[in-house]
Amino acid sequence: MMKPMINQEIYNLINDSMHIALAVHTNPDGDAIGACTALALVLEKMGKKPIILMKDIPDKYNFIHGKELIYDEYPDNLPLELFIALDCGDKERIGEYISIFDTAKITINIDHHITNPKYADYNLVNSNASSTCEIIYELIKDWGLSLDKEIASSLYTGIAFDTGGFKHNNTSSFTHKIIADLLTYNINFTDIMNKLFFSRSLSATKLLAYALNKMELYQNNQLSICTLDKKELEKFDAKNFDTEGIISFMKNTEGVLIACLLYEKSENEIKVSFRSSDNIDISVIAQIFGGGGHKKAAGCTINKTIIEAKDEVINTILKELF
Ligand SMILES: [Mn+2]
User: Fold this and answer.
1) Are 225 and 111 in the same domain?
2) In terms of pTM, does the model score above 0.85?
3) 131 CA → ligand 1 middle, Å
4) Distance 144 CA to ligand 1 centre (A)
5) Could you tell me what percent of the chain has a pLDDT over 70?
6) How far, in Å, is the centroid of ligand 1 from the Cα of 65?
7) N or C: which end of the chain has fewer CB within 10 A?
8) CA of 88 to the centre of ligand 1 (A)
9) Comparing C-alpha atoms, which of 319, 11, 4 is closest to residue 140?
10) Do 118 and 239 fall within a single domain?
């Protein structure tokens, strides 16, 4: 395969710089956290001074290496030559660090979202890659640099996360070849998989049980709905609760084609997540409410009471999809 020129250009830009900022999207997920720590650790090995700009990292990522390179803000006393945005499908996703992106001399955008508008000076966007971590792996190999256990753990985390544990259709044979290589570094993949997908706090387990018990079924059990208001979430001490954990249980119930979880973030601010199976394009429903997403996973925010939002969602789904 021809090596893309951009890979070499990015290498040269990094090689010519010393102080490099890395940033990911707000509310960082496994791929974002894996990609920025893996790349920062590589940059450090190259003798560079990487600064990761990142906040609100969920506790479950405590095992990640390179945490000492993570800062809330870019240090005032340091110059900045290069800004690398990772896993940010558009510029706005950089969040509060956008002002630093805008003032950086040179910007690079490394991402795998198909809708990425290539907002940086240099753009490496590969929508065939399962994850940004997969792209970072290719870069490291292409640059002729070596991995180590810490970098391999970060890359594994991102790839495992974005492929849903190697089961989403973005998983390719190339993905598995990368994983085969990463496992030669003796990483604790069992522990990573448990932390990413299976372990949860006691309060989260109790909330999950409560939500599943409360779940309502419509349309001959094909549509599953659950609402969680603020009081209920507070009762379970659910600050950043695991919507994904709850809605996947709802959707994986036999016969259910559409699952919908509504929760009250604040008064008249209802966050709605949708999941669908078979060929149902649930993003059309999210779009009706001003949201969006993928065909089988989408979301929106509805500014009504949770009861009103639930009724509207049910009526819209029944009208549009059944
Ligand atoms: Mn990603």
Assistant:
1) no
2) no
3) 5
4) 24
5) 99
6) 19
7) N
8) 8
9) 11
10) no
What's the gap in Å between 318 CA and the centre of ligand 1?
32
In a shared domain, residues 128 and 218: no
CB neighbourhood size of 126 (10 A): 18
Q: How many structural domains are present in the chain?
A: 2
Please indicate, yes or no, whether residues 300 and 184 belong to a single structural domain of this protein.
Answer: no
Question: At residue 102, what is the residue type?
Answer: D
Distance 30 CA to ligand 1 centre (A): 8
Question: Which helix H or strand E contains 70, and what residues bound it?
Answer: strand 70-71
Task: Supply the Cα-derived Rg of the chain in whole angstroms.
Answer: 21
CATH number of the domain at 218, please: 3.10.310.30
3-state helix, strand, coil in the chain (%, to 5): 45, 20, 35
Instruction: Report the CATH number that the domain containing residue 86 is assigned in CATH.
Output: 3.90.1640.10
pLDDT band for 2, please (50, 70, 90 cuts).
low
Query: Looking at the chain, how many residues does it have?
Result: 322
Question: What's the gap in Å between 135 CA and the centre of ligand 1?
Answer: 10
Q: Are residues 126 and 236 in the same domain?
A: no
Domain stop point among 172, 198, 224: 198
Note whether 189 and 145 are same-domain residues.
yes
Residues 165 and 179 in one domain: yes
Rounded to the nearest whole angstrom, what is the distance from the C-alpha of residue 321 to the centroid of ligand 1?
Answer: 29
Same domain, 299 and 215: yes
What would the pLDDT profile of 54-72 be if each residue is shown by its tens digit?
999 988 999 999 999 999 9
pLDDT, tens digit (0-9, with 9 covering 90-100), for 177-229 = 999 999 999 999 999 999 999 888 888 899 999 999 999 999 999 999 999 99
More confident residue, 292 or 80: 80
DSSP element (H, E) containing 300: strand 297-302
Contact status, residue 51 vs residue 71, Cβ threshold 8 Å = yes
Q: Which of 198, 215, 242 is the last residue of a domain?
A: 198
CA of residue 261 to ligand 1 center, whole Å: 23
